[in-house]
Design a protein that fits this description.
alpha+beta, four-stranded antiparallel sheet, flat, Nuclear Transport Factor 2, Chain: A, 19% helix
């Protein structure tokens, strides 16, 4: 096992940021995916953002990510064809779709999900993950 429980690591380097995809093992022996975005802010410092996806959640995570990526690719393709060359690009405000209308968040199978839903909180809402039976 590698540094700090690392089992595997790969990266995708862009001009101004790098994405790391790390498979790690916790003390209990469970594996998880750790995705880190790293951007250089100053000569000495980096800004880092990361998410953790647990092994039992990977299938749902990958399905949702593929849906989001496909949506973005298809909409971008349609937008670029529909826009005239002399027309400036305008992106909608965060959380809004066409004509400034707010789009509902979607849950599993495209169902509307209440705005107060938080997938990483347990029933008490304290942010701790619920333990799943083994």
């Amino acid at each position: 096992m590698g540094h700090r429980g690392e089992v595997f690591s790969t990266r995708a380097a862009q001009k101004n940021r790098t994405y790391f995809f790390n498979i790690k093992e916790n003390r209990a022996g469970d594996w998880f995916l750790n995705i880190v975005e790293s951007k250089q802010q100053t000569a000495e410092g980096f800004e880092r953002h990361q998410i953790v996806v647990f092994e039992e959640d990977l299938d749902d995570f990958i399905t949702a990510m593929e849906r989001a990526v496909n949506y973005m690719k298809n909409k971008k393709r349609k937008r670029s064809r529909a826009r005239r060359p002399d027309e400036p690009h305008r992106s909608p405000k965060a959380g809004q779709g066409q004509a400034g209308r707010s789009e509902p968040e979607r849950g599993q199978a495209g169902q509307a999900r209440p705005r107060d839903h938080h997938p990483t909180r347990n029933a008490d809402g304290d942010g701790r993950r619920e333990q799943r039976g083994r």
